[in-house]
Amino acid sequence: MCRVQVYGFKAVPVIDLETRCWTRRPCHRDDRHGYPAARRCHSCVQLGRLAYICGGYNGQTIFGDLWMIDLVTMHWTLLPAVLPEPVYFHSAGVTGSGLMVVHGGVVQIDTRRSSKVFAVWLRVPPLKELCWQTLIETQPDIVRQSSQSLLETGIPPDLVARLD
User: Fold this and answer.
1) Domain-by-domain residue ranges, the chain?
2) Which of 34, 76, 78, 118 has fewest C-beta within 10 Å?
3) CATH 3.60.150.10 applies to domain 11-124
4) What separation in angstroms does the CA of 20 have from each of 2, 15, 26?
């Protein structure tokens, strides 16, 4: 049987861009939950000084958790959000406003892939984003309206440009 190699989070590899040297930087555990379980095939996004990992696989378990690490203090925090379905080999991205979007991945070990999309706010979103999201959800036909008519109704140009 092939043993799956996984990577822990008590220390993480860090590169010094000036010296171009790798080191392992020790991390601080979440006071209540410890460290993220060792895993591979997880995703990682960065938003300012914070990085977030979710999902992954350790050879037996597929994870659906969401962890945050402060890249200055190197302190881990388990967040209350969980993926609707544990997943590994997925993709994740984050917007400048703090919306993390997770897409696809493997949901049953080596047998079933998903095409689902999951989104979670990593920080309190700006009111403008919340209003735009509400408008899109409650008025789905807005995507078929002309840019000019949307501008005339008072929708900001940067939001109208998202529909192009």
Assistant:
1) 11-124, 126-164
2) 34
3) no
4) 34, 6, 19
